[in-house]
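Tokens as discussed.
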């Protein structure tokens, strides 16, 4: 599996024990055409997991890309150059901002994963994301699919329970069955450069992410025999 960090904050890169400021080559090089994704990617401590890392220079590259013709297709071209046998799944991690980097990811992706908290304002903002998907389908990626994922769910909170029930009613069949609850271990695991399934494998959160992985792989098997490209539009 290949992770592509498209967030200038580089939190995904950091969470895998890579210091962004020490990087000589990042995903930005591939977006500007001075390298390939496979050339700038590196192995992580997690077996079978590679990453195309990021650092804060991506904020500058975001502006440089905009001046180039066909800028929204650059990441798609880079991904198409990766041999099909290299990865079963490619995950593109976006910032919550709608910028050229996010547009590149959504244009290149087969599936957009939209994390949604069971909170009032977060639930209302989902309409804006759906409008964004419709726009991208018209302009750059007519086959883009999307799914919602409820995260940071607090089952002790009455409003959260009510909003979850509403989302489960209104967002089907585009809502993952898995619900990711609040778990302090999820906040701790990035500091130890480990995914939750390694840092605290017996916790409820680890079980939930395993269930999500199974749902996602079922989707991949049903949709395509080639490597699936999923973009994650983070909530914040």
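Sequence:
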């Amino acid at each position: 599996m290949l992770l592509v960090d498209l967030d200038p904050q580089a939190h995904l890169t950091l969470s895998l024990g890579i210091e962004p400021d020490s990087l000589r080559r990042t995903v930005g090089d591939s977006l500007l055409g001075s390298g390939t994704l496979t050339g700038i990617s590196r192995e992580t401590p997690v077996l079978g997991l590679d990453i195309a890392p990021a650092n804060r220079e991506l904020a500058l590259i975001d502006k440089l890309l905009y001046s180039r013709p066909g800028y929204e297709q650059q990441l798609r071209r880079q991904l198409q150059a990766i041999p099909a046998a290299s990865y079963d799944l490619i995950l593109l991690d976006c910032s919550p901002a709608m910028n050229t980097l996010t547009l590149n990811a959504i244009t290149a992706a087969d599936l957009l994963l939209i994390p949604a908290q069971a909170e009032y304002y977060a639930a209302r903002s989902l309409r804006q994301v759906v409008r964004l998907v419709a726009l991208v389908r018209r302009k750059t990626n007519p086959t883009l699919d999307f799914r919602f994922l409820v995260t940071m769910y607090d089952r002790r909170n009455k409003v959260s329970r009510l909003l979850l029930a509403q989302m489960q009613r209104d967002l089907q069949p585009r809502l993952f069955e898995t619900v990711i609850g609040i778990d302090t271990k999820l906040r701790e695991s990035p500091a130890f450069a480990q995914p939750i399934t390694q840092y605290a494998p017996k916790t409820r959160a680890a079980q939930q992410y395993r269930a999500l992985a199974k749902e996602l792989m079922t989707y991949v098997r049903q949709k395509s025999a080639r490597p699936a490209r999923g973009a994650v539009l983070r909530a914040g």
